[in-house]
Amino acid sequence: MPELNEEKRDKLQDKEFAFPKERKAPLTDASHVRNAAARFNQVEGVSVAEKEQAKGRIKRAARKHGVELSKDPD
């Protein structure tokens, strides 16, 4: 996974995260998308609606970065 240090992460736009309000789970490249999908259930402190929106963001990012998800994040 390409390194995403604090400086680079701070420069990302909110839309580049699965959970933009919390700035959790960046979706900047294929490896980060796979990581976001794999750790989806570990995210705490978000509403059901935020999780549903994040699921859609992860799916869109997966298509964009050529990542095949074996199953939907859930």
Q: What would you note in describing this structure?
A:
The chain is mainly α. Helices cover 43% and strands 8% of the residues. The protein has helices spanning 6-11, 30-38, 48-64, and strands spanning 17-19, 24-26. A two-stranded antiparallel ribbon has the order 1-2. The longest helix is centred in the C-terminal third of the chain and has 17 residues, at 48-64. The protein is globular and about 30 Å long.
Strand fraction: 5-15%
Overall tally of structural domains: 1
For the secondary structure, the number of strands is: 2
Q: Give the SSE order as H and E letters.
A: HEEHH
Mean pLDDT: 94
What is the topology, as strand order, of the major beta sheet? 1-2
How would you sum up the major sheet?
2 strands, antiparallel
As a percent range, the share of helical residues equals 40-55%
Region (Disordered): 1-33, 45-74
Organism: Candidatus Nephthysia bennettiae
Protein name: DUF3606 domain-containing protein
Biased composition (Basic and acidic residues): 1-26, 65-74
Task: Lay out the secondary structure.
Blueprint lengths: L5 H6 L5 E3 L4 E3 L3 H9 L9 H17 L10
Antiparallel strand pairs: 1-2
Helix pairs in contact: 2-3
